[in-house]
Amino acid sequence: MIDWSPPLLSLLALQRQFERGPKREGAFALWLTVRMALELGLNPEGPDKADRRRVALLGQRIAPLAVPRSLSRGLTAALSHLAEGTAPGARIALAQLVAPTRDALGADAAEAVAQAARLVHEHRG
Q1: Which of 7, 48, 3 is nearest to 31 (CA)?
Q2: What pLDDT, in 10s, does the model give residues 68-117?
Q3: CA gyration radius, the chain
């Protein structure tokens, strides 16, 4: 289990700033995805069957949410990388989420995702 890292706290605070609607639901979907990416990327034990199952469940959880279109495409791509269940997949997923996040939710959200990507990248040793 991952602790409440600064990127996750930033994304959680961002959810509170948005009114109900696509941006708020997008921020929630992003938070869930970044949380999963951090757990996979910082996991010293490597992938297992349960991790891949959790990624599939994440996809089911965020599918019905009303998410801005650009972010939705980014989340779909991120989930395909996270499905590998590996730290490199998590790094790629986070790095590719930065631009769609900036377009849909703004610079603060994009910076939180970039910070999460740096955490995973630095953790690889």
Answers
A1: 7
A2: 999 999 999 999 999 988 889 999 999 999 999 999 999 999 999 999 99
A3: 13
Interhelix angle for 69-82 vs 87-105, to 10°? 180
Q: What is the pLDDT of residues 19-66, one digit of tens each?
A: 788 888 888 999 999 999 998 888 767 667 788 888 899 999 999 999
Q: Cβ atoms within 10 A of the Cβ of 77, count?
A: 15
CA-CA-CA-CA torsion sign (92, 96, 102, 105): negative
HSE toward the beta carbon, residue 38, CA cutoff 13 A: 22
* Three-state helix/strand/coil letters over 37-73: HHHHHCCCCCCCHHHHHHHHHHHHHHCCCCCCHHHHH
CA distance 61 to 78: 14
Maximum Cα–Cα distance across the chain: 40
Contact at 8 Å (CB) between 29 and 15?
no
Q: What is the pTM of this model?
A: 0.89
